[in-house]
Write a structure and sequence with these properties.
Order of helices and strands: EEEEEEEEEEE
Shape: globular
Helix content: under 10%
Number of strands: 11
Radius of gyration: 13 Å
Number of helices: 0
Largest sheet: 7 strands, mixed
C-alpha cells in the first residue's frame, strides 16, 4: 500500500516563506506526475503546481513567480517552495501523485498566512 505523507505547513506572516514536502512510502515501483492542490474554506480544491517525472512543471496563474515545485526521484519526494506568501494563499494543501498507475492523495497540511 502506498501513502503520501506531507509536512511543512504552518502559520506565517504575509511576505514570508514556507516549504512543503510530500514523500511517497510503501511499495512504490513507479511514480509519474506529482503535484500540489489546495482548498480554501468554501472553495473547491484546485491545482497549485504539478511536475512530471521528467521535471516539466506547470503552475496556477495565481502562484507563478512565487512558488516553485521540485522533486527528488531518489527519495520519492515532491516539494513546494512558497515565497512572498499572501493571505489568499491560506488553505489546506494536498499532495497528489500518480503512483503505481493509481492516483493517491496526502492527508493535507494547513497553511495560514496572516496579514
Amino acid at each position: 500500500q502506498v501513502q503520501l505523507v506531507e509536512s511543512g505547513g504552518g502559520l506565517v506572516q504575509a511576505g514570508g516563506s514556507l516549504r512543503l514536502s510530500c514523500a511517497a512510502s510503501g511499495r512504490v515501483s513507479n511514480i509519474n506526475n506529482m503535484g500540489w492542490y489546495r482548498q480554501a474554506p468554501g472553495k473547491q480544491r484546485g491545482l497549485v503546481a504539478i511536475i512530471t517525472s521528467g521535471g516539466s512543471t506547470n503552475y496556477a496563474d495565481s502562484v507563478k513567480g512565487r512558488f516553485t515545485i521540485s522533486r527528488d526521484n531518489a527519495k520519492n519526494t515532491v516539494y513546494l517552495e512558497m515565497n512572498s506568501l499572501k493571505p489568499e494563499d491560506t488553505a489546506v494543501y494536498y499532495c497528489n501523485a500518480f503512483v503505481n498507475w493509481r492516483d493517491h492523495w496526502g492527508q493535507g497540511t494547513q497553511v495560514t498566512v496572516s496579514s
